[in-house]
């Protein structure tokens, strides 16, 4: 049951069929992005906005008439990269003083005077909820005001090397209501705000009409979707509505929080045609005391039980998770709990991070007492474990048949993913970009599969 009537889809023209609002104006934009998929989606939105008013994309900042940096501060290493990039751009800005230099993403705080002091050559700071601020440096954008939410987080790249408009990210909920003790995201992205149900369904319809075959719904807590909307629609209901869109082949969502991973969502995944059998469920640690100090609000058993239920409903489901090693006070025994949990669960993908204190968060007040070398050792230990697990999981895929959605070319080969999100490469002389191709796995490695295409691509 939908909470709200969906706007008739026929009223929306595919993006290809819709000319940009202004003809090309000869100006070029350069966007630099680091961080999570949400940042990539936000950058795609900025690109779409600029294209609507006549700008074209360039991959060379020297050529640009406007430069936008989309920043990440989730760990110190990311923040350092952004600062480095900003400092590098000071020279370009001296050569081209009229070229607006814009900073967005999670480095942008409410105290923009401080940022301005640190980076005086930046013309505009805007946080990711304030896209309309871009008008200050690109006045033509004011004509998009009423349509900003309906403008897809997507643009047709101008036949970039190997890239395609085959897959797209669609944010469905912004912000985060949790306060995990290590995490800066809630301070920079604010409270959870779900996008209206109909806007999302319409955006996906437009993307599909423009040729997109796989959509990934995004949120820091994507499975909390809808609790703040009238009628409180759920993620399961949204998946069901999107699944009905003709032409969509694959539907994914990330990142989920274990606390909100109800049976309804897993049942929807199991039952829907497009929903991929792939679960992204960050656990962060395998020890209950560490989880408690991380303020994660669940236990190791909760997470393991959710994975077990996922596998019960979808025996072939692949699992991805996130882990932080070296959290303040993490003992060797507590770390080994994480090791043990990963060994038992056998995830397909683990995103590992060494703990990095973030100013303003709760855990930053605690001593960062695990030395870097020890964090590194724990990181290496889990990486080695994961390599063994992935080697084993993938070796069992030898000779198996999978359907691959071809996303591009890399090193002279076609490259794509299975529904389970495993990377597959294969040789084929045909033009296969955006096609679904059946393949037989001919060689395996821990990180990707090699394959031979069979049958007719569609
Ligand atoms: N909303 C997601 C994660 C968002 S942050 C969740 O609930 O899991 C993305 C990842 O960065 C996290 O999963 C975590 O593994 C890592 N991360 C976040 N803060 C970190 C910190 N202070 N130090 C190291 N890694 C961190
Ligand atoms: Fe950060 Fe926790 Fe929110 Fe994820 S759920 S974004 S880790 S505060």
TrEMBL record:
Its EC number is 2.8.4.3. InterPro entries: Elp3/MiaA/NifB-like_rSAM, Methylthiotransferase, Methylthiotransferase_CS, Methylthiotransferase_N, Methylthiotransferase_N_sf, MiaB_methiolase, rSAM, rSAM_horseshoe. GO terms for molecular function: 4 iron, 4 sulfur cluster binding; metal ion binding; tRNA-2-methylthio-N(6)-dimethylallyladenosine(37) synthase activity. Residues 395-455 form the TRAM domain. It holds the Pfam family TRAM. The keyword ATP-binding does not apply. Catalyzes the methylthiolation of N6-(dimethylallyl)adenosine (i(6)A), leading to the formation of 2-methylthio-N6-(dimethylallyl)adenosine (ms(2)i(6)A) at position 37 in tRNAs that read codons beginning with uridine. It comes from uncultured Thermomicrobiales bacterium. This is tRNA-2-methylthio-N(6)-dimethylallyladenosine synthase. Residues 162-394 form the Radical SAM core domain. Keywords: 4Fe-4S, Cytoplasm, Iron, Iron-sulfur, Metal-binding, S-adenosyl-L-methionine, Transferase. CDD domains: Radical_SAM. Its cofactor is [4Fe-4S] cluster. One of its GO terms (cellular component) is cytosol. Residues 27-143 form the MTTase N-terminal domain.
């Amino acid at each position: 049951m939908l909470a709200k009537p969906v706007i008739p889809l026929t009223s929306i023209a595919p993006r290809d069929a819709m000319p940009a609002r202004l003809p090309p104006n000869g100006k070029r934009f350069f966007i630099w992005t680091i961080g999570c998929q949400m940042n990539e989606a936000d950058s795609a939105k900025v690109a779409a906005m600029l294209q609507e008013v006549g700008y074209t994309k360039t991959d060379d900042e020297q050529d640009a008439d406007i430069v936008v940096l989309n920043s990440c501060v989730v760990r110190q290493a990311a923040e350092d990269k952004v600062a480095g990039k900003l400092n590098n751009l000071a020279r370009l800005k001296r050569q081209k003083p009229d070229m607006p230099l814009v900073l967005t993403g999670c480095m942008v705080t409410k105290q923009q005077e401080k940022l301005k002091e640190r980076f005086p050559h930046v013309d505009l700071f805007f946080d990711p909820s304030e896209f309309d601020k871009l008008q200050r440096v690109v006045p033509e954008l004011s004509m998009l005001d009423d349509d900003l939410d309906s403008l897809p987080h997507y643009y047709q790249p101008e036949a970039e090397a190997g890239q395609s408009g085959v897959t797209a990210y669609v944010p469905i909920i912004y912000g985060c209501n949790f306060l995990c003790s290590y995490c800066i995201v809630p301070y920079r992205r604010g409270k959870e705000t779900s996008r209206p149900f109909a806007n999302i369904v319409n955006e996906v319809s437009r993307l599909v009409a423009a040729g997109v075959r796989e959509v990934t719904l995004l949120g820091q807590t994507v499975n909390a979707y809808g609790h703040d909307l009238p009628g409180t629609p759920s993620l399961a209901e949204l998946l069901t509505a999107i699944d009905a869109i003709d032409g969509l082949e694959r539907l994914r969502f990330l990142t989920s929080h274990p606390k909100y991973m109800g049976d309804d969502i897993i049942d929807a995944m199991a039952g829907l045609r497009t929903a991929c059998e792939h679960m992204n469920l960050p656990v962060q640690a395998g020890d209950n005391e560490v989880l408690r100090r991380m303020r994660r609000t669940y236990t190791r058993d909760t997470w393991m039980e959710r994975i077990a239920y996922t596998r019960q409903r979808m025996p072939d489901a692949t699992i991805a998770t996130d882990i932080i090693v070296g959290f303040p006070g993490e003992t060797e025994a507590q770390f080994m709990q994480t090791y043990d949990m990963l060994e038992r669960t056998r995830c397909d993908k683990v995103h590992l991070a060494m703990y990095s204190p973030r100013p303003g968060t709760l855990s930053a007040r605690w001593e960062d007492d695990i030395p870097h070398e020890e964090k590194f050792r724990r990181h290496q230990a889990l990486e080695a474990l994961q390599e063994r697990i992935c080697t084993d999981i993938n070796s069992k895929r030898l000779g198996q048949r999978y359907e691959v959605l071809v996303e591009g070319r890399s090193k002279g080969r076609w490259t794509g993913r299975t529904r389970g999100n495993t990377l597959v490469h294969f040789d084929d002389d045909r033009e296969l970009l955006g096609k679904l191709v059946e393949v037989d796995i001919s060689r395996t490695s821990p990180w990707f599969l090699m394959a031979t295409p069979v049958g007719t691509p569609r």
